[in-house]
What we know:
The protein is mostly helical. The chain has one domain (2-149, 166-319): Na+/H+ antiporter like fold, CATH 1.20.1530. The protein contains 14 helices and no strands. Helix 7 (122-150) packs parallel to helix 12. The model has no long low-confidence stretch (mean pLDDT 83).
Amino acid sequence: MDYVLTVTLPIYLGVALGFAAVRTGLMQATDIRALGKFTVFIGVPALLFRGIAHQSLGAVLHGDYLAVYAAGSLITLAGVMLLARHALGRSLSLAALQGLGAAGSNSMFIGYPIVQQVIGPQAAVALALCSLVENLLVMPLALALADAGERGGGGGGGASRQSRRGRLRGMARALVRNPMILAICAGLLVSASGWPLPAVLDKSVSMLAAATAPVALFVIGGSLVGLQLSGIRSDLLLVVLGKLVLHPLCVLALVLLYPLADPLLRTAAVLYAAMPMMSIYPLLAQRHGQERLCSAALLAATVASFFTLGALLALLPGRWLPLH
């Protein structure tokens, strides 16, 4: 229990500090948005770049990890969508957003600080691999399905095809400009070259990377102020249980069936899957008018994850926790 609290309590105290700062008026929502932009556009890319660039290419490219994590995420996405569609009778658009909430982890802001304490530097490599799955597969697929659901009763074929092509081009441009994807590609280039980073550049990147985790936790806490949990209970429960229970169970089952070559990454895959959903989840749902449900799910999952993550860390075998 001491080990579990040592790993999780500082993380949630950081979240609580951000919540208290905004709740008491010490900081405003605009301040939190500015810190969030720093984290997304500067801090996390620096973290990803440094984590990859400091390792050999063979130590970074783990096809087994990508396959297991992607398969577990897709199974979760499909499972929650099917339940939402057939058990709750929800539209395809809403079901896709619920699936996104269950299959898309907050691997950067909450996941990395926890996993780094458990497995050490390999957490950055696992974070990069999770980011690839989330940004290149889970998020585009779920949003495409949500858009398809919105267009379900829609008009003409030619205009629809043109609109579809426009959305695909827009998604491609967004991926190419995504700072996390660019940082991963740059880190892979440095890793493949075998050249060490210049000392000044390495120190600068390291300083930015070190600031990422605490700032990110503060942002998460500040962004939770004002979110409501009232109503929408069945939909809320489906998303939260899908994220905190189904997703890690799917990844755990696949890890046990197809053991990863690196045992530390086995632990990372399960832990990253057990994190609450990504903090931009409500923003992604705005265009479909579902931000209320998604905001409530984000708040509920973030609070509940303190207990579910603690239970997971307590139940994982000792050999899975090298720092235990």
